[in-house]
Design a protein that fits this description.
By secondary structure, the chain is an alpha+beta fold. It contains 11 helices and 13 strands. Strands 1-10-6-7-8-9 form a 6-stranded mixed β-sheet, covered by helices on one side. Strands 5-4-13-12-11 form a 5-stranded antiparallel β-sheet, sandwiched between helices.
Length: about 500
Amino acid sequence: MCARERGWSTVAEPVKRPSINPLRAFRGPTGAARPNRLHGLSNWQFTAGSAVLGLALAAGAVLAAGPWDSGQRKAEQEWAAARSRTGGAHHEATAPSGPAPAPSAPAVLTGLNTGVDKSAPDAPDTPDGATADLRDTLTPLLNASALGTVRTAAVIDTATGKRLYGKGADTAMTPASTVKIATTVAALSALGPGHRIATTVQASPDSRSLTLVGGGDPTLDKAALRELAADTVRALRDRGIDTVRLAYDTSRYSGPALHPIGPNENIAPVSALMVDEGRLDGTDSGPAPRSGDPAGDAARVFAGLLNDADIDTGSSPVSGRPAAKSRPVAEHLSAPLSALVERALTNSDNDIAEALARQTALAADEPADFDGGRRAVTAQLKKLHLPLSGAKFADGSGLNRQDKVTAGLLAGLLARAADPDHPELRPVLTGLPVAGFSGTLSKRYTETSRGTGLIRAKTGTLTGVNTLAGTVVDGRGRLLAFAFMASGTTSPSEAQSSLDALAASLAARNG
């Protein structure tokens, strides 16, 4: 929710385009993640770019344990693959035996591997209580009038799993965009960081009927469509075909396409087929005018590309399923799920978040709609032994006010993502905006703020609701996961400043 929500919110959550596009590393020369060419066409091997991302653990100590791949160490990805070996369609291939964990590349935060039982990292060892120093630091800040009528908080030491501070930490509240933390954890847990979403072109046995089949990739762009069209044209010419009927298939998703907030610049109709998130102004983040028919628009662009290559598609494409015994002639795979997660969190991207909820639903054999996403996300988080009392995931983005989570759950999700036993969840941490530098925190901290560059956190903003959940390294070198939630706020800017002060106070602590 990065701008005005018609009928739901009159408060804008600022979005800043990141200096490093998480998907750019997976682009080919044309700027698009290139399709795989099928049936005699060559396969494109995706190359992973590197992003210099890391966290300081102690004074002057810097993690330098190896190369990064989309915000996650390659050694960790290999370790995760070696442990799970799920493989399968649209996942990165793994060798039968797989690599062993690299001893020279420890988990993201070496201080986490303490041998402590982390079956419930958010266990309220001090339920709604606090160590004296944290209570003295946080309680006055939580009493700020700018935080409205109800405010809750949780702070967890990720190394031990101990809740260091809690104030109403088990009270369910509207999370706004911080619910994306739950959505992304569930998706990564269900599908793995290497999962890619496929968009395909299917041809009938006589090659005279084509169907553009959406797989649910909201980041599909015109460059990718251009590559799909080029591969399709080659396959048709191999068979001497120059006239086809074109359809498009969005059946992978079900249920209503419109989010309950209705037509809105914060989110396009949720469709299995769209180009550039249905944006009509050329932007790639933040609010934008949206298409009312993103699937139809994508199909018409594809038809135009075929026509430009002298493949006559006749009348406008129509919605429909592929003909019986159709075969794939072109395929485009999205960037890895790890990159989609990072973009969703950094930019507070609602379209990607809703797509991730539906992909999680599909992995659980649930209908790919709002209800199926709710059930699948809930079930996946239960598998991670997270405290779900009072939780409700009405959508994947946080635009729906019916979403409910606790501060304890948000902090617990982040602690689980830091757990060395779950390297597949690391993109949740690396995707969090950096205070004063990226995403929705780019302008929330000044150059002289104690939290600038040290705090990574997801923001949440709706009218009367302000939240902040993330991680910070304190003066003792401990990685803390925190969540602060406020409702009944009347000034978004003042509420955000108060939340920022709470997070910054953790960075400054030595006790």
